[in-house]
Amino acid sequence: MNNFVFTNPTKLVFGKGQIARLAKLIPSDAKIMITIGGGSIFNNGIYNQVVDALKGRDWVEFRGIEPNPEFETLMKAVEEAKEKEIDFLLAVGGGSVIDGTKFIATAMHYEGDPWDFLLDERKAANAKATTLATVLTLPATGSEMNNGSVISRRAYGEKRAFHSANTFPLFSILDPEAIYSLPKRQIANGIVDTFAHTLEQYLTDGTEGSAMVMDRWAEGLLQTLIDIAPKLTVERMSYDAAANFMLTATMGLNGFVAMGVEQDWATHMIGHELTALHSLDHGITLAIVHPALMDVMREEKRAKLLQYGERVFGIKEGSEEQRIDKAIQATEMFYRSLGVKTRLSEHSIGESTVNEIVKRFTDRGWRVGERGIVTPEKVGEILRKAL
Amino acid sequence: MNNFVFTNPTKLVFGKGQIARLAKLIPSDAKIMITIGGGSIFNNGIYNQVVDALKGRDWVEFRGIEPNPEFETLMKAVEEAKEKEIDFLLAVGGGSVIDGTKFIATAMHYEGDPWDFLLDERKAANAKATTLATVLTLPATGSEMNNGSVISRRAYGEKRAFHSANTFPLFSILDPEAIYSLPKRQIANGIVDTFAHTLEQYLTDGTEGSAMVMDRWAEGLLQTLIDIAPKLTVERMSYDAAANFMLTATMGLNGFVAMGVEQDWATHMIGHELTALHSLDHGITLAIVHPALMDVMREEKRAKLLQYGERVFGIKEGSEEQRIDKAIQATEMFYRSLGVKTRLSEHSIGESTVNEIVKRFTDRGWRVGERGIVTPEKVGEILRKAL
Questions:
Q1: What backbone torsions phi and psi does residue B179 show, to the nearest 5 degrees?
Q2: Domains in chain B, ordered, with CATH?
Q3: Which of A6, A13, A136, A213 to mutate to test the interface with B (most CBs of B within 10 A)?
Q4: On the CB side of A172, how many CA atoms lie within 13 Å of its CA?
């Protein structure tokens, strides 16, 4: 097991009717900015619940943070928050709104150009940040209980991440009833996203047994997703299906299953480029890249692929090669069972994009995956396998 | 899934050589009291590592916190800490030293008789506490990453618990190398303790599926313990076995697997009385009570007992009754494989103790277990089954 430091100060407030507790959770003298994405919270009653809970409090709102939150949009929020001397940010939305709010929180206090955070994470690491909290409406990214943020800048065709010690939400309210009305496409993307996050922290070349307990927990997240996916994509989901999905998505990327383990993240790094170039949903990019990455990296990840196949999908028969093939197929079939396309060609993406992404990785000198084992050359192999 | 609020601010600092980081983790102007149990840390080098790390810092030490930490002893530490204006407590030891230190931390600031905390938890709930941190030397109780404390008062024959919002350790250093030299009996007790903590949060009458993801995580802890127990009780344990044990013990009682689930804790409540009356090791009492409790409560816990048998021990054959019998036997055999006796008679404890404990539960009006389903009458049945 690797040495590690773990800390996660976010308070989870989980369950039915918890949005009503907002007023008690936010300091009484706070000057609050509510940050919002598109229109869904106006249709499902969440917006009204938040406004009711904050009756008599000092708040403004900033609307229009888009999926894959855009630097230019967020900078407008930064200006407004500074002007109005906001000292508490309440993100009401999914991962994009929350990620965007983390950027606003830090950019408000930064003297230089805040794009710096995305170019050099070290500038963000201990940057001052306005206190933020969240009301989660879309389980997927885990952003409600971590300190990471992914920001896009369409003018540059870029999508990049930063982390800061000061961007953990103070609290996050997770009400499973908030997701009943989500479009099935968003539910499917959230399942894929959570599955892929977990794989990034699990499916590495670490020898079996080095972080046995975290392997079990990661497998537990994957097994739960497989168990509940059919219950989430039906017309009416049950409260328990919604609750287990919401909790699983949060646990998939809050540092819990990362304790002491190697991590990969190559799938995300490659996927971010597909989103930057073709505006594909984040979850869809992961469903495309992950099965192909498993195939190309099968030698390095052999032991873990076999363990994954056996424990998560019950694959025990056949030679090692056959079992690995089955595990990869089972992964791709799971994604496809959610209605997610898993091939670049299904999105009319071809060789020219592959070449552009390989060029970007090469130019930046990026070697990704655990300890850099995914070279730009391997990135090309992976993308060609996913055509 | 039940509504819940989760928060755990403790920073885990995990791995080889981490004790050397103490000086950076404790505020530079702190007046430190190191709290210590018996002599083991003087033999295994931990004491010297701590003293080396604190060179030049302002510290005193308090020695002699015993297993099942004693109120009278702790009150001496409270007096000394107040007199010396201590503002940082560093527990170096196992669960008893850490639990005792949580008591010292709160009792230092309490105007009345601090035994009040043990008689009425509400008095402790938000009580002021001196900042505390830990260097863990014995994985078992999870106290290094929670806010609970169990204190004994031998003059009264009592052993009781309290929790406070302010008794989470600021940080806990977990160096797996610290446990290489532990006596095998303590390792065995720690494994039993962790197994039993996990069962208390898992083996309830909740319907399958209400907190599916946490069931998986609890099963993951149990499976890991079964996998690593044989590697821990051999002459020389490996680093990875020690590390996985240490991490599993901490994860077993830090609130993580408790999210949204019913909890039982009847085994602990009964076990505490056995310790109070006969000074049995905590882990030993759990190994005695748990299999008997499963048997007596088999109707209420039927669904979960079947799931436990199948997922943790691979029991799939036979009628429901047979599978439950096998799951109970497998639990008892696991404890016995660690060299732990699982029957009261093996400790020369008989009917008179059973009657005394039933009388205590009756007199106090205690109904324990999930939602009070374990009545004093059931406590009698359980203890008789364990004779």
A1: -105, 0
A2: 11-177 (3.40.50.1970), 185-385 (1.20.1090.10)
A3: A213
A4: 28
- The pLDDT, as a whole number, for residue A43 is 87
Question: B271 near B288, Cβ under 8 Å?
Answer: yes
* Cα–Cα nearest to B386, from B312, B310, B305, B280: B280
A300-333 burial by CB neighbour count: b if 16+ within 10 A, else e?
bbeebbbbbbebbbebeeeeeeebbbbbbebbbe
CB contacts of A179 in chain B (<8 Å) are none
Contacting residues of B for A18, CB less than 8 Å apart: 3
Chain B residue whose CA is closest to A312: B216
What the block records as the tokens of B39 is: 């002599």
Residues of chain B whose beta carbon is less than 8 angstroms from a beta carbon of chain A are: 1-18, 176, 209-214, 216-217, 219-221, 223-224, 227-228, 239-240, 243-244, 247-248, 251, 256, 259-260
d(CA A14, CA B268): 27
The rounded distance, in Å, linking the Cα atoms of B134 and B145 is 9
Q: Quote the CA–CA distance of A4 and A147 in Å, as a whole number.
A: 16
CA angle A202, A221, A68 (to 5 degrees): 80
Contact list, B256 vs chain A (CB under 8 Å): 256
DSSP B299: T
CB contact under 8 Å between A244 and B5, yes or no, is no
B207 pLDDT higher than 70: no
Percent of chain B whose pLDDT exceeds 90:
90
Question: What tokens does B20 get?
Answer: 């050397």
SS3 B318: coil
Task: State the smallest CA–CA distance between residue B162 and chain A in angstroms.
Answer: 21
CA closest to A231 among chain B residues: B209
Cα–Cα nearest to A36, from A137, A140, A107: A137
**What is the spatial distance between Cα A288 and Cα A353, in angstroms, rounded to a whole number?**
14
In chain A the beta strands, taken as DSSP E runs, fall at 4-6, 11-14, 32-36, 59-62, 88-93, 131-136, 148-153, 158-163, 171-174
Q: What is the spatial distance between Cα B128 and Cα B117, in angstroms, rounded to a whole number?
A: 12
Q: Which residue of B has its CA nearest to A4?
A: B14
Could you tell me the two tokens for A154?
Answer: 């369409």
A194 Cβ contact partners less than 8 Å away, ≥ 6 residues apart? A139, A140, A142, A221, A225, A245, A248, A249, A252, A253
CB atoms within 10 A of CB A277: 16
**Between A and B, how many CB-CB pairs are < 8 A?**
129
**Chain A residues within 8 Å of chain B (Cβ atoms):** 1-18, 176, 209-214, 216-217, 219-221, 223-224, 227-228, 239-240, 243-244, 247-248, 251, 256, 259-260
Q: How confident is the model at residue B157 (pLDDT cuts 50, 70, 90)?
A: confident
**Alpha carbons B178 and B309: distance in angstroms, whole number:** 34
The predicted pLDDT at position A39 comes to: 77
- Kindly tell me if the per-residue pLDDT of A360 is higher than 70: yes
Contact A11 B7 (CB under 8 A): yes
A12 vs B6, B212, B239: nearest CB: B6
Q: Which 3 state secondary structure label does DSSP give A159? A: strand
User: Which residue is closest to B6 within chain A, CA to CA?
Assistant: A12
Name the pairing type of β-strands B59-62 and B88-93. Answer: unpaired
